Amino acid sequence: MRFIDGFRDPELALKLVKGIERETDRELCLMEVCGTHTMAIARSGIRTILPENIRLLSGPGCPVCVTPQSTIDAFIGLDGFVLATFGDMLRVPGSSHSLEEARARGADVLVVYSPLDALEYARENPKKRVVFFGIGFETTAPAVALALLDAKKLRVENFYVMAAHKTIPAAMVALASDKEVSIDGFICPGHVSAIIGCAPYEAVGVPCVISGFEPIDILNSILMLVKTCGQGAASVVNMYPRVVHDEGNVEAMECIYSVFEESDSEWRGLGTIPGSGLRLRPEFAEFDASRFVIEEPGTSEEDVCECGSILRGVKSPAECGAFGNACTPERPLGPCMVSSEGACAAEYRYGRGVG
Amino acid sequence: MRNSRILMAHGSGGRKSQELLRDIFLRHLGNEYLDVLGDSAILDAGPGRLAFTTDAFVVKPLFFPGGDIGRLAVCGSVNDLAAAGAEPVALSAAFILEEGLETEVLERIVLSMREAADSVGVSVVAGDTKVVPRGAADGMYITTSGAGVIREGVEPPMPSRAEKGDAVILSGTVADHGMAVMTRREGIKIESEIVSDCAPLWEMVASVMKAAPGVHAMRDPTRGGLAAALNEIAESSGVCIEVDEDRIMVGEGVRTACELLGIDPLHVANEGKMVVILPEREADAAVAAMRGLPVGRDASIIGTVKAEPAGRVHIKTTLGSLRILDVPTGDILPRIC
């Protein structure tokens, strides 16, 4: 038996569920803000074994889902560049088409597992200009920062980054104060927390629990949240100590902030959230792809797409009129359905009408 | 062969083509049919119904742990015939070669095809070669077609024949092939190397049909993985297939790679596995027959067929809840964070 198997033990899971039931019968609204949590919860079917008074909401935890259409359009519109991207972004629709469709029409799209691979490609192909799509939260930003530090050290002249990173805690603060949804507590993303540690969550104002991704991790974290919600204080508890240090990964944070600085950022469906993004510091301006962007007139997002409400937890996927008919994984209207970790994709894949 | 690399001339039909045919294809794949070098092979397949299948193979890289594009091509067609309950009788192989491909690479692949074909007693009776300019064909593409015979008295398994109450058997672990190819292609190193399960399955299928003549449906879960194969059968038969997550075996290295990359092993291709759906009373005999052969050593019953909801596949999770097992959408893409 492997170490990890203990985190999937059905008997332990039932004990934890009973513990949650005993703790409170208050209606509680708990939100997770991590695409991997969305999928883990959907795949393991946790919602069906939780007591009915506990409502699990899926928030804007998928970096692909919260990238505005205009950012995608801007990246696809970079003519004459090799467009290097994480695979996740391939199918996300811009206002007219996705990177996948652009590739089929002849755009030079390069799928990479790491921004360092994109830099390597640029160095091996000095006649091409390579731009990397800098998407992701604090988990991904350090690798992008590393690539830029290397690029500067090696004086690479044909490598650029379209910086579109976002940071989670600022978004959580905005969500916690949203009157339309009343969030009682957050399940915090395990991998982001491994980088940022516990401190940034103190500003959120409601109880936060940092959780791992196995079913037992998630149930354990829900139990802790339910306990701390009852105490009225906005505590931060690390329930993923096997991966997350309370102080986070100091070196990674230093790396991020030596290359990036805090900025305001537009989140699809949530609008602009102050201090929730990362932009390149002036010293790295030579790598900034934003100066090549051709400004298109503002495009309005699809009227029928309700991703915005879904990302804020105001509506569930099933409550979107387009879910399952006009909008499916094969023909997604919005990123919540496109990304494999979007709330709608998870619901469509795992949650539809099982008796 | 005088050239260490394939040239455009090798595909032009002249002397160089003949040299290639003689020195590589006839030398390694030759048999009484191919050696005739007619425009068509004349076969006598014996009594029974003719089963026919075709596949194209474009795998990259050409060589991966556990196999290569040649082995894959032979096994792919043999297994498609086997899934219809047909004994493989003859294969054809058409090659599209990239100009500049090393001759030695082609030779290794053709030898591999011979070995795979010999193991089930089938021959390549017809072939073709074209050469395309450097930059196309990723080294090489292979298209194979296969002819097989369903002997008299055998009712061929078909995806539309699954019935309520049937048992669902899987012949072994899932996701080995797809993860072997992906990890090799992307240079991802896992501690226990992942090996493709690419293997011909006719012998196992023949053994199953002898022990359990009432088989309703069979499918080899290739592209789209086990999820796609089960969904296709559920849809075709108008039934609901329910499987148990805990009974579907996944190798250790494969599970690690899948978790690392955020990939669902049930969506990943297999090239040496068979799903067998048959009346419940014959299930134990079928499993015993499969376990009698190395390719079926991990065979087990993984689920059951229900009447409804028609066209759906459900999976019981480790925690005991029931969820939908859907067909994967598009390319398998590793997650970002």
SS field, number of helical segments of chain A = 13
The run of helices and strands of chain A is HEHEHEHEHEHEHEHEHEHEEHHH
Largest sheet of chain B: 7 strands, mixed
The total beta strand count of chain B reads 13
- What does the largest sheet of chain A look like? 5 strands, parallel
Structural class of chain A: alpha/beta
Broad structural category of chain B: alpha+beta
Secondary structure: helix percent of chain B: 25-40%
Uncertain runs of chain A are none
Total E-strand runs of chain A: 11
Poorly predicted residue ranges of chain B: none
Record the strand order, biggest sheet of chain B: 8-10-7-11-9-12-13
Q: End-to-end distance of chain A, in Å?
A: 32 Å
* Distance between the first and last residues' Cα of chain B: 50 Å
Shape of chain B: globular
> Helix count of chain B, per DSSP?
8
Shape of chain A: globular
Helix amount of chain A, in percent? 25-40%
Mean pLDDT of chain B: 93
Largest interface: A-B, 44 and 24 residues
List keywords for this structure.
A: 355 residues; alpha/beta; five-stranded parallel beta sheet; four-stranded parallel beta sheet; 11 strands; B: 337 residues; alpha+beta; seven-stranded mixed beta sheet; 8 helices; globular
Explain the overall architecture.
The complex is a heterodimer of chains A (355) and B (337). With 355 residues, chain A is an alpha/beta fold. Helix content of chain A is 34%, strand content 16%. Chain A is built from 13 helices and eleven strands. Chain A has helices at 10-23, 35-44, 69-76, 99-104, 115-124, 141-153, 168-176, 190-196, 215-230, 250-259, 307-311, 335-338, 343-351; strands spanning 28-32, 54-58, 81-85, 109-111, 129-134, 159-163, 185-188, 208-210, 236-238, 260-267, 271-280. In chain A, the strands form three sheets. Chain A has a five-stranded parallel β-sheet. In chain A, strands 4-3-5-6 form a four-stranded parallel β-sheet. In chain A, strands 10-11 form a two-stranded antiparallel sheet. In chain A, α1 (10-23) runs parallel beside α9 (215-230). Chain A is globular and about 65 Å long. Chain B has 337 residues and is α+β, with helices and mostly antiparallel strands. Chain B has eight helices and 13 strands. A seven-stranded mixed β-sheet of chain B has the order 8-10-7-11-9-12-13. Chain B has a four-stranded mixed β-sheet with strand order 1-6-4-5, with helices on one face. In chain B, strands 2-3 form a two-stranded antiparallel ribbon. In chain B, α3 links the parallel β4 (87-98) and β5 (123-132). The longest helix of chain B is centred in the first third of the chain and has 17 residues, at 103-119. The radius of gyration of chain B is 21 Å and the shape is globular. The relative contact order of chain B is 0.16. The model of chain B has no long low-confidence stretch (mean pLDDT 93). Chains A and B meet through α2 and α13 of A and β13 of B.
